[in-house]
Amino acid sequence: MKEQPIRSLPGIPMVLALIAALLADGYIIVNAVASGAGPSLILPLILVAVVLLFCLGGFYMVEPNQAAVLSLFGKYVGTVKDQGLRWNNPFYAKKKVSLRVRNFESGRLKVNELEGSPIEIAAVIVWEVVDSAEAVYNVDDYESFVHIQSEAALRAMATSYPYDQHDDDRISLRSHSAEISQHLKEQLDERLTTAGVNVIDARISHLAYAPEIAQAMLQRQQAGAVIAARTRIVEGAVGMVEMALSQLKDRGVVDLDPERRAAMVSNLLVVLCSDRATQPVVNTGSLY
């Protein structure tokens, strides 16, 4: 079912017209009664007044960024988006639907990420109704539908990626926020298009390991950081030792045999890789 626009009449001119018609009909009825007219004349006038009063039920208000979905005895007739006081057939049932941009934050969900670790995750969803007919007639309660399907999409997305990035070419929840948000938005669009809803934005608002493994994962992250730092230090130290030996040899400062060369390499690596200040030992005797 797709949204179909329907024409509506401006409310203020209709109010004035109906009031004028009621006053005129009342004036005629009063004159008819005063002149002693029979029921054959008075009853039609009373019937006209009843019809005019019934027509007052056709007025309704449409606010900015709002739509009125009209139906006649259960059949969809059309949608009115004209702002202000409007008038349509009094038999039409009218249901208001907000077209404003709305947002909500999902509850914190506890799920298992791709590698099986339990995590807590929540997201902020920004959405709007783009088809009022689908929102009203394709689902029972479109707002509840949006909330439930958003949580389902968030769960499905969270199980598709690891929490942390272990490979350079692998997308993870913590390090690729743009890619994760795009994937979540696509999941939501696929689920909510039936309800006439468009997802404007979807972003993770909370992401953390579950409390029962948070401490263990923190130690794992710290160990990884230490290993990465030590690796960088060793790489730099090896390069500096290689440069020092090369320059000593090229400038003819000292000519070391393999054993002394190995000892010098060992001492330099200790100095460069140690996390504490080293204590130098001065040798005043013979080198050999």
Descriptive notes:
- The protein has 288 residues and is α+β, with helices and mostly antiparallel strands.
- It folds into three domains: 9-97, no CATH class; 102-209, Tetrahydropterin Synthase, Chain A (2-Layer Sandwich); 214-273.
- It contains seven helices and ten strands.
- Strands 7, 8, 9 and 10 form a four-stranded antiparallel β-sheet that branches.
- Strand 3 (66-72) and strand 4 (75-80) form a beta hairpin.
SSE order and pairing:
Blueprint: E1 9-10, H1 11-34, H2 39-55, E2 59-62, E3 66-72, E4 75-80, E5 84-87, E6 93-98, E7 102-105, E8 109-112, E9 118-129, H3 132-137, H4 142-158, H5 177-192, E10 197-209, H6 211-250, H7 258-273
Helix pairs in contact: 1-2, 4-5, 6-7
Summarize the structure.
The protein contains seven helices and ten strands. With 288 residues, it is an alpha+beta fold.
